[in-house]
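The authors assume throughout that readers already know how a fold can be written as discrete tokens. The format is easy to grasp once an entry is in front of the reader. For illustration, here is how one protein appears when written out as sequence plus structure tokens:
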Amino acid sequence: MKRLLIPAIIALMMIQSCGSTDSFQEQFDSISNEIKAQYAPDRRDKCYEPILKDVDGQKVLYGSTTEQEAKDALLAALSEKGLNVLDSMTVLPDPKLEGKTWAVVSHSVANVRYEANYSSEMATQLLMGTPVQVLEKRSYWYRIVTPEGYHAWVTVGSVQRMDEQELNAWKASDRLIITTYYTLFREKADLTSQVISDGVWGNIVEKAGEQGSYFKVKIPNGKIAFIPKKDATPFNSWIASRKPTAENIIATGEAFMGFPYLWAGTSIKAMDCSGFVKTVLFLNGMITRRDASQQAKVGDDVSVENFPGDLIPGDLLFFGRKATEERGERITHVGIYLGEGRFIHAATNVHTNSLIPDTEDFYDGTLVRARRVLNKADEVPGLISIAKHPWYF
């Protein structure tokens, strides 16, 4: 009889153990979700990724976060519930980076993803010469923060990692910016020489000398190359010449007419709607938020009632779903107002449409709001001039 009872008791203990494990995980998830909602609700702005593991019968907290307060609140809430864990959660930047917590993009256009793998959705793109903060390394990927504050992942080979002293040296260097659509960085100062890298409008490199009609340059990854002088100009003088007027912003936008649409694209190779706006503003000396839903909170609100109302050329137009009692506002698209009821945007490709009903190219999206960013750089959150961004100067 006793022999029959032993297997039954063991089975019961296993069932109870499994039930206890599930309960622990469920309680952990519930608490963690509450902490996330309070401290890091948007993965684009902050990192909060706790991971609970069972190690030799002990619950261990792994994962990472940029928010020390979130980690502290999580541990306190778990303790209050009697859920004991060993703390191995990393507060970013990861100390393992040993001070090399900066990097400069070394590809003409670097693809940035939400997760540290190639199958993950692309989040945005970065141009050569863009400074980023490095938060942690995972295999062949770095978790980074972009100049506008976007959190995502980039491959190790896309950037050149630096410590603060090296970044300051880069900021103080004699830099050039590419001012033509496309160029090629070559091994020697002639058109038949081996190509080292391609280059696009907005790329930034260090000037290392001159040779005839070529600039000798250093790409952020340290490679020396040559580009035609006609394709670049000194970065500092380019910055000083930026005048982000409505006319200049519209002219830059129209320079991309017909260029293809790419989800998460932010370069002249291809761009999405908010990437188009971001690129146009960048080429006029300003850095703004990445996504349309974020850009819709930048600048001064402009009434869109009784269209065109108070709109002026250069205002940003946002489309999507208006807020109701049942559902909140949802922004899904953005463009730049041209005046006379027309706007320019990236949808399939960069083109213009009319907002006036019964016109041949009427755009039937719902206009939700408009924001004015003209003359607002360094005055409103989410819009800063490149000249005053501490990562560039």
Observations:
- Residues 95-170 form a domain with the SH3 type barrels. fold (CATH 2.30.30.40).
- The two ends are 82 Å apart (CA to CA).
